[in-house]
Amino acid sequence: MGDTTSLGRMRKNSTRLDHVVLWVADPVAAAGFYQDAVGLEPVRVAEYADGKTGFPSVRVNEETLLDLVPLTAAERMDMLPGAADAAGHPVNHVCLALPAAGFDRLRARLEERGVPMSEIGHDSFGARGKALRNFYFRDPDGNVFEARHYDD
């Protein structure tokens, strides 16, 4: 694991988050939500729709994806005993850190689409210290996200 002195000095082989797998009812619709409402880039959606890959993703940044895995694939999750049982057991939430302007654009896009959101909070602790502002929202499959920014 990295220490706080490596914050900001990313190396090709440093430890960092690669992807998070989200269980979704309709991966194409989920990718549309994340593209339109959240502003993330879709990856492999056409390939998934053509049956060429098992799931699409959306890109959070150049090194992190959210994989949008259909709930129907749970029975094939056999990498560990009991792995299929993770279907329907969501993580409490995933947090996206954005620049201040991106934070404001995300909140506006969600509001335009009628996505329920929490009030804006302040001074929430995270990987980079205390965030100036944060809020929570839920995707159409019930996955909870936090959006935050650390500086102006």
TrEMBL record:
Residues 16-150 form the VOC domain. Pfam families: Glyoxalase (PF00903). SUPFAM superfamilies: Glyoxalase/Bleomycin resistance protein/Dihydroxybiphenyl dioxygenase. Keywords: Dioxygenase, Oxidoreductase. Gene3D superfamilies: 2,3-Dihydroxybiphenyl 1,2-Dioxygenase, domain 1 (3.10.180.10). InterPro entries: Glyas_Bleomycin-R_OHBP_Dase (IPR029068), Glyas_Fos-R_dOase_dom (IPR004360), GlyoxalaseI/FosfomycinResist (IPR050383), VOC_core (IPR037523). One of its GO terms (molecular function) is dioxygenase activity. This is Dioxygenase. It comes from Streptomyces filipinensis.
